[in-house]
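Hey Z.,

So I finally got round to the calcium ion thing we talked about over coffee. Here's the setup:
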Amino acid sequence: MSRPMPTGRALAVLALGAALAAPAAAPASPAPETAPRPAARPAPDALGVVLSAAQPAASRAGAEALGAAATQAAGNARFAAWKRAFRDEAVAGGIPGAVYDRAMAGVRYRPDVVEKDRNQAEFTMALWDYLDSAVSDSRVRNGRDAFRANAGLLAEIEARYGVDAAVVTAIWGVESAYGVRRGTIPVLDALATLAFDGRRSRFFREQLIAALRIMANGDTTPERMFGSWAGAMGHTQFIPTSYQAYAQDFRGDGRRDVWSDDPTDALASTANYLAEHGWTTGQPWGVEVTLPPGFRYALAGETRKSVAEWTALGVRGIDGAALRDHGPARILLPAGARGPALMVFANFEVIERYNPADAYVIAVGHLGDRIRGAEDFRAAWPRGDRPLRLAERKALQRRLTAAGYDTGGVDGIIGPNTIGALREFQAARGLVPDGYATFETLDLLR
Ligand SMILES: [Ca+2]
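And the result:
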């Protein structure tokens, strides 16, 4: 994620359905909150457990409450000690001691932040359900309004960075509902809490130092630095390291301000982020296509071909017209052979640098198209399908492996190996080998 790995934002939260190869996730709807999503979770730090366990207990009556209060007090003391100890690390990282002292003086431990971090759900959301929310009618309508209201600014940004202003607007819409939901948690509280908590301490220590550097530079103050529980900030939810690397002061007033009501710097920063990650001016993220009867489904996914080559294989625009050549392309079937087919270009992977989930990229790309007046996808989604849950994805992998189709392990992530194994199984059974896992597939393997 957020790649810089972390990209503009931290990693995504929800694991998407079995249909999606991406191990990461889609943002929660409608205003996603983001957090890095490690592949494996280390055991929770004992300190963090004590603190979060103390919180709900604090409201109980009697001796139990007294005990909880004592636990809470002990936890607070530990957090205070941690803040004092971390000062050395921050100063070694270039943060002036005086800046640290002023910025960290009011920083509080937030049990709710740890709870959100721990509760990143393993539940899965079907792509069409996610799109219903991320690209809802109101999101499209508000996007068209925002696009019109900021037309002059967006044109300037597009001219300077060469990035499609509708895509920038779409990211704005998905990340914060066009600035309406920029996050209400003090970022230093969130980052310090997660740095103190053991689960992803190293990542959040780095983010906290980057946030303190923002203070040292005078871009904003602790009182104004609000964001998500995972420290994603402002209109387009930059995490501090991404901010450091890519944020822009578009009008040259001396501050890179992504937090205030004025979205100018945030939108320019997002365009800059995409430009720096290789955006190709004038190239769409993708287009909906039709596949010919007998299409070799093994070509969908990772295979990259020129538009001329795809055309020679019978791929056409959704309206039947010839496809325009925007460079090498892949064919994606996010819901298998029974859902929309997409031809995606290099800019798809550029948006992926903001959030690696295919679902996120499709939502942003499609919302951008809709903001420019396009219609919904022409092909219908297989809304009757239920995404496989984690245990079911693992069962699918175990059963494929037992049947002689190597999935490269049982981790519940439907990646290239599992898709390849599934395609072999489908082909052997005379099914459409689209590598799309459904509950019926699981049943067939039983
Ligand atoms: Ca500025």
